[in-house]
Amino acid sequence: MKKSLVTAIVAFVGFAAVVAAAGARERLQAVSESEALGVEQNGSVVATCPSGTRVVSGGFASEFSDPPLNFPFIELDASQRSGRRSWTSSGFNDGNAAGDLTSFAYCRDQTLRAVRTTVPAPVGQFVTATAKCPSGTKVISGGIEASPIDTVGDTPVLYVSESRRAGKRKWEASAFSDGNEAGELTATASCDKARKPKARSVSTTLSDVPPNTPFDAVTARCKRGERVVAGGFGSPDDSGSATPRFMASKRVGRRGWKVSGFYGNIGAPIEITSYAYCERL
Predict the structure, then answer these.
(1) What is the residue-averaged pLDDT of the chain?
(2) pLDDT digit string (tens) for 202-223?
(3) 215 lies in which domain range?
(4) Which of 105, 130, 216, 230 is within CB 3.0–4.6 Å of 141 for a Cys-Cys bond?
(5) Closest to 262 in 3D by CA, of 199, 211, 214
(6) CB 24 within 8 Å of CB 99
(7) Residue 90 near residue 280 (C-beta atoms within 8 A)
(8) Which residue(s) pair with 99 in the sheet?
(9) How many domains does the chain have?
(10) Residue 135 lies in a domain
(11) Is residue 54 one of the residues assigned to a domain?
(12) Would 63 be classed as within a structural domain?
């Protein structure tokens, strides 16, 4: 075999190996951790990415079963990046049985810049916090943190209603403050110079009046040739009277982002929306 041909083959194999390695780095690796929360117990769960990777996005899921049986009912108060390699999910079990809270971290070799914005949450007010990425970067993912519930004395109670992208550089978090003490709400954004992920969304309606059901799940899916890199959730309610309680916001498979929720109160039907943020393969 001629030397030039051998050189060409070796170069091609080397190039293919580099491309394959790059593709492997681009895929997200899922890591999860769970913790059981007792009745009227607060808890936080941290999922940590393997050494050599960074957290790109994350999510949560809480154990839930329909009332009136004994059931856990873990209300979310945080789901956010909490370090270069970690994602923290927190909640309060307002049910009458113990249940599991799970935090998910989606990891790869990608370094993102974190931005946080915190706003006060006066009692009886619907509040929104918006974290904005620096000029020249795009928001890749984001999260939310609300004041935790304290079982002793006066306490903030924030019903989380959305954690989603709100523009090329913005991540928005919203909640209704329904406790007997003011709290705080924080939006977190993870930013990079990479291409902005495409947003795909789908909604479903929650209600205590058939044919709708009080608890439901909805999954937004990326198109063929795309994969989900992050996700979010939302509801149009801004009054607190029907704010749904979100039970999960997490990746499912390569292309899906699943959101589930429980109807918050008696009133008009209310939508919940799942957002999948998708990148090209």
Answers:
(1) 88
(2) 999 998 777 778 889 999 999 9
(3) 197-281
(4) 230
(5) 214
(6) no
(7) no
(8) 37
(9) 1
(10) no
(11) no
(12) no
